From TrEMBL:
Free-text function comment from the UniProt entry: GTPase that plays an essential role in the late steps of ribosome biogenesis.
GO biological process, any: ribosome biogenesis
Pfam families per the UniProt record, alphabetical: KH_dom-like, MMR_HSR1
InterPro entries in the record: G_ENGA (IPR031166), GTP-bd (IPR006073), GTPase_Der (IPR016484), KH_dom-like (IPR032859), KH_dom-like_a/b (IPR015946), P-loop_NTPase (IPR027417), Small_GTP-bd (IPR005225)
Binding of GTP 1, residues: 9-16, 56-60, 119-122
Protein name: GTPase Der
SUBUNIT field: Associates with the 50S ribosomal subunit.
PROSITE patterns: G_ENGA
Alphabetized GO MF terms: GTP binding; ribosome binding
Organism: Arundinibacter roseus
Length: 436
């Protein structure tokens, strides 16, 4: 049985900051560096060998500070019902508010262990002021913490895990590649999924404005496990073309967000269009592995050179985002569809590739010596060494004397050399430069 810990409380108390800290510290730190704020509501955490799922209700409580609307309340209550333990977060910086009291009233109706967590308590003054929250009459104690610095979170977790009945389960999807199938309407996503999974899926929803969650389907082929993520079968009934495009885009982004690798499907007859470029750009930005699948190849009049030519043109247009494999396929004629899946697996491997520090430095120092970073206003720029970070997509930190003078073209140079030496096909590479 899974242990579920939900974090509830009014907006801006620091729920997502704690969430990020609980799910995976490294990832949270990385995201800060790149200025990315993640929009995820579920994650997996571990404390003293106890595993748990964390729900951040922050994403649900949007909008106004003083309205605790019905729909929002429903979402939060759903999370509470699911939970083994609830962390009720308040803010020592702003002090007790009316909305805190409303949350307390909701929580009182459930027979769940509630921990009253007084956040932002990194100063002595705020630490002491946490006592004012006793007025809420919730929980047995107050846990002053700082989500930002991590202060007090260990003591809190020590108590939280005592409420778990089991040690829990590790991230159930850990290590299993999650592959999303995305693309514009009518490129053949549903047909592709039907062939892969052998079932007909066509769920029509009438709910206006819904962006239903992507469907995760465990799938086995070539003795390997995947999780296929798609939104293909979900169609919103609408006669308006723009509307369909819009919802399709939102759904694609959602599926992409939850994946490790995305198969971006294009229509061979139409070629690479603006919206496809946008989708590819989004996948690159989100640090996802990418496979380009050019579907409906059966409809294209071709000779032996057509595929090579088309591929070359596409990759030229995509530069510098041209590191992905391109496969010409036909779902209708079942041509190369399993090759697409094999490529997706390869990209997953490439994306998870780890290069040892010694090998990395050996290879890259030689390239740097061959073509050193250009001097800036007479300042000599020296890259001293580099490391790979233990992140889900290849990320490297270069330590140097003047990181801010390393310009875009030189970064490209380093990335290209890295791609020559190590197989990162389909995987976006991130480079950071730090002073040393
Ligand atoms: P949420 O709306 O409850 O999810 O809150 P966020 O996690 O987005 O945090 C709201 C603001 O409070 C952000 O500006 C955070 O940087 C800040 N914050 C979060 N935790 C702490 C903390 O422990 N100390 C301080 N000083 N600020 C914090
Ligand atoms: P989705 O909107 O991306 O899910 O696209 P569908 O799977 O519904 O496919 C849209 C249309 O394209 C359907 O009429 C399919 O039969 C057709 N289609 C899908 N794949 C192929 C293909 O490889 N070749 C041809 N000729 N048609 C295809």
């Amino acid at each position: 049985m899974a242990n579920i810990v939900s974090i509830v409380g009014r907006p801006n108390v620091g729920k997502s900051t704690l969430f990020n800290r609980l799910i995976e510290q490294r990832k949270a730190i990385m995201d800060n560096q790149s200025g990315v704020t993640r929009d995820r509501h579920y994650g997996y955490g571990e404390w003293t060998n106890h595993y748990f799922t964390v729900i951040d209700t922050g994403g649900y409580v949007v909008g106004s500070e003083d309205i605790f609307e019905g729909a929002i309340r429903d979402q939060v209550e759903l999370a509470i019902e699911e939970s083994t333990v609830v962390l009720f977060m308040v803010d020592t910086m702003s002090g007790l508010t009316e909305l805190d009291k409303e949350f307390a009233n909701v929580l009182r109706r459930y027979n769940k262990p509630v921990f009253l967590v007084a956040n932002k308590a990194e100063t002595t003054e705020r630490y002491q002021s946490a006592a004012e929250f006793y007025e809420l009459g919730i929980g047995d104690a107050i846990y002053p913490i700082s989500s930002q610095t991590g202060f007090g979170t260990g003591d809190l977790l020590d108590e939280v895990v005592k409420h778990f009945e089991t040690v829990g389960i590790e991230n159930p999807e850990e290590g299993i590649p999650r592959i999303a199938i995305v693309g514009r309407p009518n490129v053949g996503k549903s047909s592709f999924l039907n062939v892969l999974t052998g079932t007909e899926r066509s769920i029509v929803t009438n709910i206006a404005g819904t962006t239903r969650d992507a469907i995760h389907t465990p799938y086995k082929a070539f003795g390997k496990e995947y999780i296929l993520i798609d939104t293909a079968g979900i169609r919103r009934k609408s006669r308006v073309k723009e509307d369909i495009e819009f919802y399709s885009t939102i759904r694609s982004v959602k599926a992409m967000e939850e994946s490790d690798v995305c198969i971006i499907m294009l229509d061979a007859e139409k070629g690479l269009e603006g919206q496809d470029m946008t989708l590819i750009g989004q996948a690159d930005k989100a640090k996802k592995g990418i496979v380009l699948m050019i579907n409906k190849w059966d409809l294209v009049e071709k000779d032996s050179k057509t595929a090579d030519q088309m591929k070359k043109e596409m990759l030229e247009r995509l530069a510098p985002m041209n590191y992905m494999p391109v496969i010409f396929a036909s779902v209708l004629e079942k041509q190369r569809i399993f090759q697409v899946m094999e490529k997706a697996m390869e990209v997953y491997e490439n994306k998870s590739r780890r290069i040892t520090t010694s090998r990395l430095n050996e290879v890259m120092q030689e390239e740097i010596t061959k073509y050193p970073p250009p001097a800036h206003r007479g300042k000599h720029i020296k890259i001293k060494y580099m490391i790979q970070l233990p992140t889900p997509s290849p990320t490297f930190v270069f330590f140097c004397n003047h990181p801010k003078y390393i310009k875009e073209p030189y970064m490209r140079y380093l990335e290209n050399r890295m791609r020559e030496h190590f197989d990162f096909t389909g995987a976006p590479i991130t480079l950071f430069f730090r002073e040393k």
